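Students often ask why we bother encoding 3D structure as a string. The short answer is that it lets us treat folding as translation between two languages. Here is a chain of 223 residues written in the first language.
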Amino acid sequence: MNYAAALLTVTLSMVLAQVASTAQPKTILVFGDSLSDGFMLKRSEAYPALLSKKLHATGLDFQVTNASAAGGTTQGGLERLPPHLKHRIDIFILELGINDAFRGLSVDQIQNNLQQIIDRVKARNPNVRVVIAGMQLPNYASEDYVSAFGKMFGDLAAKNAASLVPYLLEGVAGDPSLNLPDGIHPNAAGQKILAENVWRVLEPIAREVAEGRGSSPEPPAGD
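And here it is in the second language, the structure alphabet:
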């Protein structure tokens, strides 16, 4: 009887541990700049928080972490990334690069930094699904630079088998009613459109991950 009781206890413990692991919500990390941070807005008004609401309303259990920073650059992203790699990432939304372009960084360097970010996330989360938020530049830079910058995001998506939001600010850029007085950052109404732009790409991926296709195991302990 003692052996049977012990065996039953071990079996129950294993089952409960498996259930607990399965019950843990999948995770989405949004890693961007002021556009994702919700510059001059409440965090609850920024599109990552709106995506979280959409996910829950659709019955998809995801924990969305907005690890964006106003003024963020790709080099700054590399420096900010390590603490976030200590936790499992099932879906990684990358929205960086525009501030580098405003500072005149070469497109090759921007792309190299973004690739390093993706590589480091994948190294810790081999099954992570990557979503790249594409951006475009106003036509105040040289045509060659503007064209190369816009093309870069599609190239990165293709190289990394990632999904692409063609232009995060589609339907928002240039519309005074959807932007703050600076004409650059979306207001609360503009952020709702950003959420829709990302949602069109994110929803099918989130459904696949929720069904267990392409989710990441816990990263190994250590640095």
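Translate back mentally: The mean pLDDT is 90. Keep this in mind for the problem set.
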